[in-house]
Amino acid sequence: MTENSTVSRRQILSAHQTGQKIRRIAFEIYEQNFEEKSIIIAGIAGEGFAFAQRLVAELTAISPLDAQLIELRFDKNIHQQSPILFDRELNVENQVVIVADDVLNTGRTLAFALEPFLKVPMKKVQVAVIVDRSHHKFPIHADYVGYSLSTTLMEHVEVVLSRVEEEGVYLK
C-alpha cells in the first residue's frame, strides 16, 4: 500500500469494533434460525468470503448449528451476469442460505449472487453485510447489517478482514 492511499482513508470501525459487529450478526442469525439443524453461509469471494468465515466461526462458538461454508466466485466488475461458481459441491435444496458480503452499495453484486439459489427450492435465503451504504439500485435488502453508513456516491467503503494488521472498516 502506498503512503498516499493510507493517508487518504479514514478508519470508521476498528478491528475490535468490526469483530463485535460480526459477533452480533452471528447472534441475530442464530436467533432467526434456531430451529434449523444446519445452515449454509455463502460468502462472496474476497472480503465477503472472509466475513463468511468469521460468521461460521462465531456461529460454531455460540450455537449448536452446523454452519457450512461455501465461497461464491464470479466477476463482480462486468455489467452483466457472469457464471457463479461454488468452491465445492454442496446440496442447497431446501436449506437456509445466508449470502454474506462485506458492503451493500447498489445491490448489483448481491443480486447476481442470489441467482443460483433462486433456481432451486429453498427454505430461506437471507443476506448479511458488514456495511450497508443504502445506495440501492436493485431490490436487495440486507437481513443482517453490522453498520449502516451514509456516504456520498464518490466515497468508497473498504472492509478489511483478510489482513490482520489493517483489519477494520475504512472510508476513502
Automatic annotation (TrEMBL):
Keywords: Glycosyltransferase, Transferase. Transmembrane segments: none annotated. GO terms for molecular function: glycosyltransferase activity. Residues 10-148 form the Phosphoribosyltransferase domain. It comes from the Bacteria. Pfam families: Pribosyltran (PF00156). Coiled coil: none annotated. PANTHER family: BIFUNCTIONAL PROTEIN PYRR. This is Pyrimidine operon attenuation protein/uracil phosphoribosyltransferase.
